Amino acid sequence: MSEYWLISAPGDKTCQQTWETMNNVTSKQNNLCENFKFHIPDLKVGTLDQLVGLSDDLGKLDSFVETITRKVAAYLGDVLEDQRDKLMENLLANNTDLSQYITRFQWDMAKYPIKQSLRNIADIISKQVGQIDADLKTKSAAYNSLKGNLQNLEKKQTGSLLTRNLADLVKKEHFILDSEYLTTLLVIVPKMLFNEWNAGYEKLTDMIVPRSSQLITQDQDFGLFNVTLFKKVVDEFKLHAREKKFVVRDFTYNEEELAAGKNEITKLVTDKKKQFGPLVRWLKVNFSECYCAWIHVKALRVFVESVLRYGLPVNFQAILIHPNKKNQKRLRDVLNQLYGHLDGSAAGSSNIGADNVDIPGLGFGQSEYFPYVFYKLGIDMVEQKI
């Protein structure tokens, strides 16, 4: 199961005691979940007013960072294309899989110095992830443009004779070239009208070279024919051909242009291959950055909400729970029995919506409210399409 619960409960005589009590009744005795201590360092508390204001802002930051993390993951899946099945093994945090990262979470002191205020740490994360989002937009626009151009050219290499590029189907000998008076046209004829074309193309106008048409190639529905005629009757020929449901394709045989067209595809394929490796590496690195930042936001939220709920001095134990999917309701009941005394109004009322809880800094903006601090935490980052 990819869902984890991040909770905190006030310290008893010691935080270790809180951990042991909770772990005993949920994991050891009832086998409802697997629990991990979630280490949050001694952060700067600041004033109560600052904490209340920060609580709301951290909720918004949480949503923002999660959205960008999912966006990076989803785009990595798009870029991998045929190798999309390898997406999960590429979604790592600090070079470990996501469950290992959160169950062994260690605060990154270098990136988010704990001597800074909580507000400053939140701002560092916001700027960092905002920059990743901006860079992603630039990089994805450039790569998508290249990919789109290549797909358009490749489409022209396949598909119906009505629309596809004819350059790789015709040869020099199919055309009368460098004539002052004569020209060769390419005509798309529906298969059911082949006999009609062969019997009647010479009579569509005057000045058509007799027996100058041959079938060059065909697909499921159409055939590609050439025909040679005098330049002065081209417009009249096109008009009469259209009346008979024969489609004259605009095409000029020019070896330099045809070579350039083939070179363009080769160049785009090469460019795409060149950009693929660095882009995948960038997405992997920045997915890791975003995911780690997101878990630090969760840690900040747990710290702020715990101080607001349980008071000072700071004394709480943060615990990461991996619920047994079949026993979630029972686990919830056990936690409510254990911590219901912390807030009578919330005990046993896991279905109370956030709309009913308008208490600044006390879980406001969550869809569920419990007597203990509670946040959901996911490791399935491609579950939702952003």
What does this molecule look like?
The protein is α+β, with helices and mostly antiparallel strands and 386 residues long. The chain contains nine helices and eight strands. It has helices at 15-28, 48-80, 87-90, 98-103, 118-157, 194-200, 234-243, 255-310, 328-339; strands spanning 3-10, 33-37, 182-190, 214-218, 222-230, 247-249, 316-323, 373-378. The strands form two sheets. It has a four-stranded antiparallel β-sheet with strand order 2-7-1-8, sandwiched between helices. A four-stranded antiparallel β-sheet has the order 4-5-3-6, covered by helices on one side. The longest helix has 56 residues, at 255-310. It comes from Chironomus riparius. Belongs to the V-ATPase C subunit family.
Task: Describe what is shown at a glance.
With 386 residues, the chain is of the alpha+beta class. 47% of the residues lie in helices and 14% in strands. The chain has helices at 15-28, 48-80, 87-90, 98-103, 118-157, 194-200, 234-243, 255-310, 328-339, and strands spanning 3-10, 33-37, 182-190, 214-218, 222-230, 247-249, 316-323, 373-378.
Gross morphology is: elongated
* Overall average pLDDT: 90
> Whole-number radius of gyration?
34 Å
Biggest β-sheet: strands ordered side by side in the sheet? 2-7-1-8
Low-confidence parts lasting 5 or more residues at pLDDT below 50?
A: 346-366
Give the helix proportion (percent range).
40-55%
Give the percentage of residues in beta strands.
Answer: 5-15%
Number of strands: 8
Give the helix tally.
9
- Succession of helices and strands: EHEHHHHEHEEHEHEHE
Distance between the termini: 21 Å
